[in-house]
Amino acid sequence: MLQTLQYVPEYKEELIYPAICKSFDALGIAEDMRPDLKVVIKPNLIMARKPDLPVTTHPLVIRAVVRWLNAHGVYDVTLAESSGGLYNAEYMKNIYQVCGMKQLEPELRLNMDFSAQTVAAREGFANHSFHIITPVAKADYVINICKLKTHAMTGYSGGIKNLFGVIPGLEKPQLHYLWPELSDFSRMLLELAQTVNPQLTIIDAIDAMEGNGPTGGTSHPLYMLLAARDLYTQDYFAAGLMKLDPMKIEMIRQALEAGLAKPDEIELIGDEIPEGLTPFKLPDTKRLDFSGNLPGFLRKPFLFFAGRLFKSYPQLDEEKCVGCGKCAESCPAHVIHIVEKNGHAPRTSGKKAVFKKKGCISCFCCQEMCPMKAISVKKAL
Predict the structure, then answer these.
(1) Which residues, in sequence order, are CB contacts of 101 under 8 Å at separation 6+?
(2) What percent of the chain has pLDDT over 70?
(3) 41-87 per-position pLDDT tens digit
């Protein structure tokens, strides 16, 4: 598996574009191109955040890819994403504007078709079909451009996890509720990735995120752009760059066991892996979860008997909460409500979120979508 690594010290077009050109040349992407090709770029635009934060795919990475496509005679290029939250024109226009995507027009078309298509999955999959946003479902060629991050639920977010954004709007929480266990949710992500089957995956790791990702963490730059046709093996490789154990990332472990990830076949092209890479800080959910350190034969019995005792739950900081309702909107179990409260301190008065433990599936969608970083993680014990 060819894996490219290009050193890019900062977000400047004159540095990013040559790196994209070298990566695409190494991977032979030009051989895929034809003038009538309908290309869809799937970025990570999880929420409305400025490009200088390590939350979303940087617009200059996307600009470089579009520039390369245009230079190779491909002009039918659409950017399509379903962010966390609603999937409609008003919501996505704000996402495009804040995340810096609006500036990419007219070379790039920003998707304004908010329909979705039912796409059949492979025979034998637990998910018989997926409801996928129309531009991706109808694309000839999908370029998956993700942001490298730690993740409160899955531990790691890269190419595989980024494709969850092809599920429209608030249908994503429904899949969280359908598959509440991490093993089942990870299997769903792998089945979705195989259904979408992007032809190319790029990881924006010029700046990356550690800690309470995918939205509440902090910057941990790697100064790298990664590109590969095989997103499963690439995720294994990228997790290693973060000093994470890929075998403790459930979706990567499953990808390896299914023969999708093939780390023994990696052929690195471009720049060498730099020395002195430092470990990424883990999300609070993972730092509090020591069951992953148990031997495999003990893990399931432990989780069965002690799961509730050591289960992680979201905890609200009422002083930071502004009652926007994003947490309640994204909660698949519908155990969060916005109520009027009269606290002792001014900051604890007004509309606030109220969480119920009963029914909570610990997916941490609420923490992911909170714009105020008002939600942390607490153990039941």
Answers:
(1) 43, 45, 59, 62, 79, 95, 108, 110
(2) 92
(3) 999 999 999 999 999 999 999 999 999 999 999 999 999 999 999 99
Count Cβ atoms below 10 Å from residue 298 Cβ, excluding itself: 10
Q: Contacts from 101-104 at CB under 8 Å and sequence distance 24+?
A: 101/43, 101/45, 101/59, 101/62, 103/59, 104/59, 104/62, 104/63, 104/66, 104/79
Q: End of a domain among 229, 263, 283? A: 283
Widest CA span of the chain, in angstroms? 66
Report the CATH number at residue 344. 3.30.70.20
Structural domain boundaries enclosing 328: 288-379
Residue 76: both structure tokens together: 């039918």
Measured distance CA(282)–CA(292) in Å, rounded: 13
Cα 140 to chain centroid, rounded: 22
Task: Mark which of 253, 283, 313 sits at the end of a domain.
Answer: 283
Domain match, 322 and 266 both: no
Mean pLDDT of 138-166: 98
Name the E strands within the chain. Answer: 2-7, 39-42, 77-79, 109-110, 116-120, 129-133, 141-151, 155-157, 200-210, 218-219, 224-228, 267-270, 312-316, 336-341, 350-355, 375-379
Lowest mean pLDDT among 108-117, 134-143, 370-379: 370-379
